[in-house]
Amino acid sequence: MAMRGRRTKVLPSELNKVCPERGDDPATHPRKMSDFEVVPNLHRSSSSVSKSRRKAHFPTGSNEKENLISWIPENIRKKECTYFVESSQTSDSGRIVCECGYLREQHLEDAAKPPIFLGKEWDPSRHIQEMPTDAFGDIHFTGLGQKMGKYVRVSSDTPPRVIYHLMTQHWGLDAPNLLISVTGGAKNFVMKPRLKNIFRQGLVKVAQTTGAWIITGGSHTGVMKQVGEAVRDFILSCSHKEGEIVTVGIATWGTVYNRESLVCPMGGFPAEYIMDEENQGSLSCLDSNHSHFILVDDGTHGKYGVEIPLRTRLEKFISEQTKVKGGVAIKIPIVCVVLEGGPGTLDTIYNTITNGTPCVIVEGSGRVADVIAQVASLPVPKITIALIQKKLSVLFHDTYELFTEGKLVEWTKKIQDIVRSRQLLTIFREGKYGQQDVDVAILQALFKASRNQDHFGHENWDHQLKLAVAWNRVDIARSEIFTDNHEWKPTDLHPMMAAALISNKPEFVKLFLEQGVRLKEFVTWDTLVYLYDNVAPSCLFHSKLQKVLLEEREHTAGSKMPRIQLHHVSQVLRELLGCSTQPLYPKPKHTERPRLSIPIPHIKLNVQGSSLRSLYKRSAGRATFTMDPVRDLLIWAVVQNRKELAEIIWAQSQDCMVAALACSKILKELAKEEEDTDTTDDMLALAEQYEHKAIGVFTDCYRKDEERAQKLLTRVSDAWGKTTCLQLALEAKNMNFVSHGGVQAFLTKVWWGKMCVDNGLWQVITCMLFFPLLYTNLITFREKRLQHTGCLTRLRAFFTAPVVIFHMNILSYFTFLLLFAYVLMVDFQPLPSWREYLVYFWLFSLVCEETRQLLYDPDGFGVVKMASLYFKDFWNKLDICAILVFITGLTCRLIPSTLYPGRIILSLAFIIFCLRLMHIFTVSKTLGPKIIIVKRMMKDVFFFLFLLAVWVVSFGVAKQAILIHNEERVEWLFRGVVYHSYLTIFGQIPSYIDGVNFNIDQCSPNGTDPYKPKCPETNEDNKKPIFPEWLTVILLCLYLLFTNILLLNLLIAMFNYTFQQVQEHTDQIWKFQRHNLIKEYHGRPPAPPPFILLNHLQILVQRGLLRRPAMRHKQLKEKLEKNEEAALLSWEMYLKENYLQHQQCQEKQNTEQKIRDIAQRVDVLAELLDLDRVKRTGLVEQRLVSLEDQVHQSAQALRWIMQALQGNGFGSGEDVPPVGSSKASEMKDIDREGKPEESQPPYHVLARHLLYPGSHTHRFPVPDEKVPWEVDFPLYDPPTYSADHKDMAVQDPFSPSLESLLKINYNSMDGLIDRQSFHGLYAVQDGLPLNPMGRTGLQGRGRLHCFGPNHALHPVVTRWRRNLDGSIIRKSLKKMLEVLVAQYPLSDVWALPGGSLEPGEMLPLKLKWILRREFWPQFQNLLKQGTEIHKGYLDDPRNTDNAWVETVAISVHFDNQNDVEMKRLNSFLQGCDPELCIRWQVLDKRIPLHANHKELLRKVSTLLGAYY
Fold first, then answer.
1. What angle do CA 330, 335, 341 make, to 5 degrees?
2. pLDDT, tens digit, 9 for 90 and up, residues 1326-1355
3. How far is CA 43 from the centre of its chain?
4. Which of 238, 256, 1162, 1449 supports an S-S bond with 243, CB 3.0-4.6 Å?
5. How far is CA 759 from CA 334, 746, 765, 781, 921, in A?
6. Contact 1319, 1422 (CB under 8 A)
7. Is 704 in contact with 696 (CB distance < 8 Å)?
8. Closest Cα partner for 76 from 178, 172, 151?
9. If DSSP codes are grouped into helix, strand and coil, which group holds residue 1461?
10. pLDDT tens digit string along 587-601?
11. Which pTM does this prediction carry?
12. Residues paired with 557 in a beta bridge
């Protein structure tokens, strides 16, 4: 659709000013005009503020200072008076001032004698000039701690876009989600304490929860002070920085006290500002609790209200901006909140309502707010001048004398117009049901206005939902949006679901799921890609994804970064889940994705700079879906550590145990790489929670059915990369899960194979040694078929059991070690004996087994992956080490010259083989954990050696250097420095270190004896040592002190800590490591070495010759049939629901939760009692008023009786006093909460709008009761306005004189102009006709062409709304219509295709615009066949006292969809202007048309019996 020009709305320029003249400012230094230069209007800053810096507003950084100092003077101006004209007024101190209000010395030097201005009259348009501003920066309120704000002095003519750019780009403010404009009394006023608290808490709550900006007048008085104190109380009670509330004060520069301290041409960083309320006089201090100040300057001093036009323009500009927040693009909504107030506040409310902005009036705050609140529920005709006068006399008792009769008329008219727009007016009443908080009232006001706003289709409801999501107010969404008034389709919620996910709003996700959103329909392939595209940049997963993309770009040698695809995500997930899992999202071979697809409706929604339209667009027609949408969303939430969101999605999962364990694994892996410690702790805590969830579900399953629960452990999950629960738990090291009784029972069952688990170990060993005992029922089996003693499979079942294989391998290994030891010690000959050859053969079988373990790959991981898994195991590394050492020793042994070194190396290999025995002990519950303790203590010793080496080396070097001179033998250097120092720790102190036990025979004087150390330096005479004995003794004592006492005790403490830590989890550690042993022997060939070679030969034949694939052992990993798997998952999901319900019950039964619930109930009860007290008080007041009214009427009745008796009669009927109670009925009306039942207004309404359209002319206010000409209205003095239509050939005089008016023939045909009215003859007064419907507040013909009636034609062309199959769509059992509407250039609204008739024409010009010329005669025939639904006066905003619109509305309805005339009409529809839009639109009461056109549509619907 082409862009259309928009008509600017002109706001009233005259505003009530109730403040007196203000005092002066202290003198400032004169300035020269030449000091300032005029620069272009707006220059973009050279650098913008990054979003990361926008979070912290204060203090300003150096770059931001430079940016502001250069940008603000170029783009923002102030105003200065350049011509001093002495005023008749004086300052508060009696000094002469200029007409602008400033002293002479406060002007520029050139202002006193200007050569360019002639005359002495002061004209603001000529004598006030703009120049670069000189007041901006940070404001610091002296004496109030760290209170800082930002401020700027701006000209009153500054474009709003410049100010908005300053606030968002340079002040670092995020665009608001809501704009709250608070207005009201500028002077201090008194509010009830309870109402004050409710207002403060509610205002701050709505600002905090929605991310709103609060805009006030910024001064430390009145309503601005109330807002500031509310923000202050919130900041004091809030400890986190995210509680900052943006409070913008827009004040008049000329009324700010102490403003000279803010002047700093280069910016104040900060500017010190002192609040001095005692000496401020008629000026005002800025409020210290506001965060930002915009000080509006018009070049005058002491003049209030200067900021109002700029504030209005700025608020309107902001409300027209689009904010993208949380994946939702919305126009920034605005709401006005009113407290108390005077005449200026009434004008503000009127302009706010006129501009379509919702307004919240706080009843009980006083004055204007209470006047409107008390009459808001009355029908408009009952709001009379007398009623308003009565209200003002009560609420404005101090200033009531200032209200003239004209002012009362104006107030009545404005209040009537305000109350008439009930959809924009919300009254907050203390104690009103459903509106206990101001924040709820504010949000309800916005939704109320949105609901009543005209719209096409579902746009209105979509907009409301966008607002609720952007504000994160799920409570408002539940109460205001998801009601019975609108039925939501699940597909309509898909875009908002995506927005809620991206912005991390779990409550909305939960709400949408409750409203029927199905994840299987929502999660498409493109949606998932889009979600990963919007992963938070601060997330670790995002950086890992970027790394994968970077690697792919380098691999493909491309210059552009590839877009995120799901196979990139899968690559990162496989790193996190472990390579034992298959890729979750395999890389597609082609561009198309062979998935299930269904059509998706067309939904418009912009999200974070891109569009969701591509995800749900009709053009594609088909949408591709993933295999498991719950899994996909769960992973997406978990990788971002979104706890609440992941918990909601996990509750929807079917394969919940695998999902929980996978989440635990992912979180633990991410925690290892996360640098932020807080995030790491959160991830580990969340991982533990998911482990507990898996344990909880498995516990319930195990209690119900052990066999099915154990199937869940080994079931292959296709959705999670063809892995199993048990495998995920082991890789994530979830010891709590693995040590669960059900898991251990399953492992025990696997360990015993097909035998019963209650067989004794001695029975097994006995049968191993004497296998014929198997047929004596000494061993029992689980399967009945194996119970037969003659069964041959009984023997196979026994010897293939892991427990039997394990013990046979133990016997074999001990035999191998005994034989190996015998060979090394007894039978190690130059030529190997048969025993030695047997050892070599035995070792060969061990090598073959290790090779089998390395290459065994039933899951198809590949050689590289299997090798990495093999070498991860410590015992496998030990095996490889032992084999390599043995092979090395064997090689040396076979060479005669290296026979002895070979024996030494084989001896070392024997040590390593003996160490391998520790692996056998892992099966023992007692010794198994001890092996873990030894392994961990070895790590402790390794780190301890670093500390010990520092002391050993330092002491050894110092000792060696002091005692011995120039020792050149390396081996003896090592002995002296390291070996002797190390032995000293254990008490072997060198005898020569103190000189007492020195014996020269035990050392070599010259160091030539290779078997003796070199002697210390001695005296040549008596051969006594000459080194300082006292120093060596001190060093020795210190060395022993730190090593023996400090370091060794530290080592003992480390050992003790390790022992205690492992001992606390002994059972878990043993149960966890037990699985590895069971898995190893479960997949091991049954024969022990060296007989295992027979099994290896069998495997070689099957794999190599017969090409049979490796068989997976079903006991640890089993692929189920689809039906069996579906039934098992349904059973698991059912028990998961039971588990979640049980968890909720436990939380409710928790003592702390009970205390919180009781406290909450007590608070609610106290609030209800308080509200009941308020209501009772109000009821008592109503009864007192009613009683007073009854007494008053009784007195009137008695007076009438006395008069009747005195006149000897009963008096006339007119004198009878009224029986009803006027006040009582009034109170009933006020108490009525619902919208009052009103019939159609008896008088024109649009024709009395105060601002005449298309001009700056204001009508004279005409209340409803003064509309008829018959009603006397002495004050009526309307202005005159007649527009000059230069493009019209026929029009009445622009400036009518009496002569020209007398030439007009009214109530007849005046040439081609028809001046006859459908309502009969109309009155003519002073040559001007009078509007038959009454006064309008404006004389002349306005923008109409002729005086008197201006005839128009409005055809209403309709057809039935039909489905694709041709059937008529119904709503509420009534048929639905479609109507032909058009949007003309320079218009914001849609209208019926019709308009004013030119003299002599049969069709309106606007109708001709949309029809081709050749169809005009046929359309005239259609009009003749149509039904006339209205003929007469049309309430049009252009109507005046002397000119008005009368129209004929004709219904042209096409009942048949195959109607030839309708098809011809559609074919002849055209647009002579490219900006003209024509469309068929569904007809209902929310269709956005002119108000007078909607009344015509209502009549058409009634005529045809259609839905409206």
1. 165
2. 888 999 999 999 998 898 988 999 999 989
3. 33
4. 238
5. 79, 16, 11, 9, 20
6. no
7. no
8. 151
9. helix
10. 776 544 444 333 333
11. 0.70
12. none
